[in-house]
TrEMBL record, chain A:
The chain crosses the membrane at residues 12-33, 60-88, 100-123, 129-148, 177-199, 233-256. The keyword Kinase does not apply. One of its GO terms (biological process) is transmembrane transport. CDD domains: TM_PBP2 (cd06261). It comes from Marinobacter antarcticus. This is ABC transporter permease. Its main location: membrane. GO terms for cellular component: plasma membrane.
TrEMBL record, chain B:
Residues 75-280 form the ABC transmembrane type-1 domain. One of its GO terms (biological process) is transmembrane transport. It comes from marine sediment metagenome. This is ABC transmembrane type-1 domain-containing protein. The keyword Cell membrane applies. Keywords: Cell membrane, Membrane, Transmembrane, Transmembrane helix, Transport. It holds the Pfam family BPD_transp_1. It is found in: Cell membrane. It is a multi-pass membrane protein.
Length: 267, 289
């Protein structure tokens, strides 16, 4: 497969696929500055009026605040639970070890709508009214696996010799964990946390079933799209999110390439 | 404290179960019971006058689903759609995964992977709205098509639109495991094949393809499962005649307020996935997730 033609064909194909993935996001940003409230092609004029309208919309900022609060809490809980699960599965040999990794993956292996209605009927069954907390519970359930996968992948690559050296030099298991294992896992924990945060922040599939009167930002947008209301403002909100998320991704890129050059490790 | 730690270290069984209790507790007390409740609810019914759930066991929901033409069509359409989306994404993703695994530099690869996440991180529904603008009758695609003199398409709010956008949304889920499988193939295997006279196409068919299969299957699990239960895409981009299981389930939970019927419908994708996972496991896909 080393020939020049295949090389160029693959490069071209990849570029095409990336265009397919990213072009719609560019469309959203362009239409955010569309003067008309009808989303036709080509756009008729440039205007900032929808940006101003979005800025004065209190519903949007309330939804944004709620989404951030939920994502933060869901991330903290899932990092704690996901890391412990990964630690135990990697370090211990026990009966049912395979089952643990299977159960953890289940919420993303099953269709999201199933996790959604399952949690919805669970809350209904036990008379738990839908609230901020039920949304967090839903998010943690599928965020655990994101952290778990990231952390366990890193732990499998860590040489056991470093841990043994630390223990030989007299450090106890807790000290070894804080001084050796944790620092070596820090980038995996950070990327796991970032992925979990982004997943929670953008989630609608499960949230639709676990939210009561609360509107997270993606739910607000989904509602607006379904009812066909506020569409020009939706453009502005999504554009803002795309730009912030792009910045976050570039930060991830910087973190990941920095770590790569410092440690000079090849996966 | 250190005394306790040392004792726990010696009794690894105890420390292991102590550590495992919180994460497993989450699943044992919340997620798994939720799935059980869902299963049980599927055998209940809703009183059509009061709208209250009646907790009497019956197979009515299932009998209704499988005896009605409408629901059989919806199930069939959903499975065909999931298969079509999966095949599309495997075709689109394989060359990209191959390029990332064996040709791109580490920096380019990381950049590509991160950019691939952007559509999923745009409020999830953001790109779907963009596709509505692109595929509309007076939209961007038709604008471009008519400007080169072709006749416009009419694919907005149809199965075509649903197919395109599902393929768009789930593509990264197929690229990632396919890449993981391709990246694991040692260079020496390809050299050995070349040394033994295998031309590049033959090496590809006989060495690379078989080793990539588990990764492709792993990706297809996500793609297939996500499409089977997807309700956002059909409810935002589908039209008459493009109802899928997902949005029918969603409508029964919300507007129709018939949770037992939604639960019974929900059993269908779970059974389909169980069959799919059974075969995927035999093909070694679980090592690639």
């Amino acid at each position: 497969m080393g020939s020049k033609i295949t090389h160029w064909a693959l490069r071209l194909w990849t570029l095409g696929v990336m265009f397919f993935l990213l072009a719609p996001l560019v469309v959203i940003i362009v239409y955010a500055f569309n003067e008309s409230n009808i989303q036709s092609f080509p756009i008729h004029g440039f205007s900032l009026k929808w940006v101003v309208a979005a800025w004065h919309n209190e519903e949007i900022f309330a939804a944004l605040g709620l989404s951030l609060k939920i994502a933060l809490l869901a991330t903290v809980i899932s990092v704690l639970l996901g890391t412990t699960a990964a630690f135990v599965v990697d370090r211990y040999r026990f009966f049912g070890r395979e089952t643990v990794s299977f159960i953890v993956v289940l919420p993303i292996a099953l269709p999201g709508v199933i996790t959604g209605i399952a949690l919805g009927s669970y809350f209904e069954f036990f008379d738990i009214s839908l609230s901020y907390w039920t949304i967090v519970i839903g998010h943690v359930t599928f965020c655990i696996v994101i952290v778990y996968n990231n952390v366990i992948a890193r732990m499998r690559r860590l040489p056991g010799s470093l841990r043994e050296a630390s223990m030989d030099l007299g450090a106890g298991p807790f000290r070894t964990f804080y001084r050796i294992t944790l620092p070596l896992m820090s980038t995996a924990l950070l990327s796991g946390a970032l992925l979990a945060f982004a997943l929670s922040f953008n989630e609608v599939i499960v949230t639709n079933f676990t939210a009561g009167a609360q509107n997270t930002l993606p739910l607000w947008i989904f509602g607006a799209l379904r009812l066909g209301q506020n569409l020009p403002v939706v453009n502005v909100v999504v554009s803002a999110v795309v730009i912030v998320m792009l910045a976050l991704l570039l930060l991830c890129y910087w973190l990941m390439t920095q770590a790569g050059t410092k440690q000079k490790e090849h996966p | 404290m250190s005394h306790l730690a040392a004792r726990l270290w010696r009794h690894r069984g105890i420390s292991g179960s102590l550590l495992l209790t919180p994460p497993m507790g989450w699943f044992v007390f919340i997620y798994l019971p939720a799935l059980v409740v869902l299963l049980i609810t599927a055998f209940w019914t809703v009183n059509s006058f009061t709208g209250v759930i009646e907790r009497d066991w019956s197979l009515d929901n299932f009998v209704y689903i499988f005896s009605s033409h409408t629901y059989r069509d919806i199930i069939l359409r959903t499975i065909v759609m999931a298969a079509a989306v999966t095949i599309t994404d495997v075709v689109l993703a394989f060359p990209v995964a191959y390029y990332c695994a064996r040709m791109a530099s580490a920096r380019i690869r990381i950049l590509l992977f991160l950019l691939m996440l952007l559509p999923l991180w745009s409020m999830f529904v953001g790109p779907m709205y963009a596709w509505r603008i692109i595929l509309a009758d007076q939209g961007i695609l038709n604008g471009l098509i008519t400007s080169v003199g072709l006749s416009p398409l009419s694919i907005s709010y149809s199965n075509w639109a649903v197919w395109i956008v599902f393929s768009y949304m789930w593509l990264p889920f197929v690229v990632a495991p396919t890449y993981a499988a391709l990246e694991r193939i040692p260079e020496s295997y390809l050299e050995a094949s070349g040394d033994l006279g295998g031309r590049s196409w033959r090496t590809f068919r006989k060495v690379i393809m078989p080793l990539a299969v588990p990764g492709v299957i792993a990706g297809s699990i996500f793609c297939f499962s996500l499409t089977l239960g997807g309700y956002i895409v059909p409810s935002l981009l589908g039209g008459p005649g493009s109802d899928l299981l997902g949005n029918v389930i969603f409508a029964n939970v919300g507007a129709a307020n018939n949770l037992p019927f939604a639960a019974a419908l929900g059993i269908v994708p779970v059974v389909v996935m169980a069959v799919y996972l059974f075969f995927a496991r035999r093909l070694g896909a679980f090592d690639m997730m």
